[in-house]
């Protein structure tokens, strides 16, 4: 018998670059608009390995194609309403349709995604000891009676309306986050994101900025839903990593305090993108919040974050992206 042990079999994988990653990060909904920008940012850090889970309901593989085949990147087709077994250090939980036309399309599925999906991701976070960030929404403030909205406002939400699958769903998701935090000691972060826009938004997403820009490029009337005096505050896609890496649970508003009526937005899009386009007034949908504007003192003080791109600067960046994807160049 040989008395010396055989030398340890050096795994060829051990020296491969991707094993040097020291943080494995799960991004649910990573094929979507905000998720894919987040993935780009996370992938820029060589220490991160990024796993995206998405069912492609509103997202697209196209948003992630730049990372296909990268050793630190992995894409899994999976629905978060089903349990997920995986080993990760951090979870950015974004999976959920965000545009009213999509979240109202199958409201039962939307609320399952918010409730069961978030429960599953919290169960996963608990099992592996991961920190988890939820992208909640300004919709938790409903049709707000307090203006502008800071994080202490409890909101004014219709529990049985057609938007409830989304806004009540996110409210339950926030409750689950805090209950897992208090009961099981899970490290949580909650962002309440206000209307976000930017390149890569689904062209037929149905939200107002993408609608107006696509309409202006296609020379179709800009559809202002009545009365048009309702306001939103539009933020260029940004800011979640700071919240994850900081020490505050939140909720923290992530948004741009610049407030516009839909009429002002339509006029700005017209001026910047197509001065000849018509503006048309159309009916609105039920329970549309009349005003929305974030107080971002917490984001500034606790995260050192504030928006840097003004609407007039952000719209042309989105126009450029939409023109490329639609194949319509600007005519002088
Ligand atoms: P999006 O629709 O582009 O992305 C959502 C992604 O989640 C898509 O890729 C979709 O396919 C995926 N998804 C949906 N249901 C799923 C499920 N059951 N299982 C797995 N994947 C699923 O939307 P977005 O604008 O990128 O929004 C991302 C997150 O940010 C959402 O949680 C949304 O509620 C939140 N948010 C967005 C805004 C905004 O203005 N865009 C504002 C507030 C909050
Ligand atoms: N879960 C999951 N992945 C895991 C651990 C749990 O998807 O790695 C799911 C699990 O199926 C359950 C949910 O998360 O439905 C909540 O899990 P938890 O352990 O908190 O509760 P329990 O399983 O005891 O109900
Ligand atoms: N809106 C509009 N025209 C459109 C789409 C939306 O005037 O083509 C209005 C809508 O009535 C709402 C605001 O724009 O007051 C923002 O709607 P969006 O669906 O973008 O986001 P929400 O904040 O309602 O989730």
Which terms would index this structure?
globular; binds uridine-5'-diphosphate; 332 residues; single chain; alpha/beta; binds nicotinamide-adenine-dinucleotide
Give a structural overview:
The longest helix has 22 residues. This protein has a 7-stranded parallel sheet, with helices on both faces. Strands 7-10 form a two-stranded parallel ribbon. 33% of the residues lie in helices and 17% in strands. Helix 5 packs parallel to helix 7, helix 5 packs across helix 9 and helix 7 crosses helix 9. It is globular and about 85 Å long. It has 332 residues and is of the alpha/beta class. Strand 5, helix 4 and strand 6 form a beta-alpha-beta unit. The chain has 9 helices and 13 strands. The structure holds nicotinamide-adenine-dinucleotide (NAD) and uridine-5'-diphosphate (2 copies).
Count of strand segments = 13
Shape field: globular
Helix content percent band: 25-40%
Q: Which structural class is indicated by helix and strand composition?
A: alpha/beta
Strand content: 15-25%
> What is the mean predicted local confidence, pLDDT?
93
Major β-sheet strand ordering: 3-2-1-4-5-6-11
Poorly predicted parts: 14-18
Radius of gyration: 21 Å
Order of helices and strands: EHEEEHHEHEEHEEEHEEHEHH
| DSSP helical segment count | 9
Please give the largest β-sheet: 7 strands, parallel
Query: Quaternary arrangement of the chains shown?
Result: single chain
Small molecules (ligands, ions, cofactors) in the structure: nicotinamide-adenine-dinucleotide, uridine-5'-diphosphate
Enzyme class: lyase
Pathway: Nucleotide-sugar biosynthesis; UDP-alpha-D-xylose biosynthesis; UDP-alpha-D-xylose from UDP-alpha-D-glucuronate: step 1/1
Domain NAD(P)-binding: 26-316
InterPro entries: NAD(P)-bd_dom, NAD(P)-bd_dom_sf, UXS-like
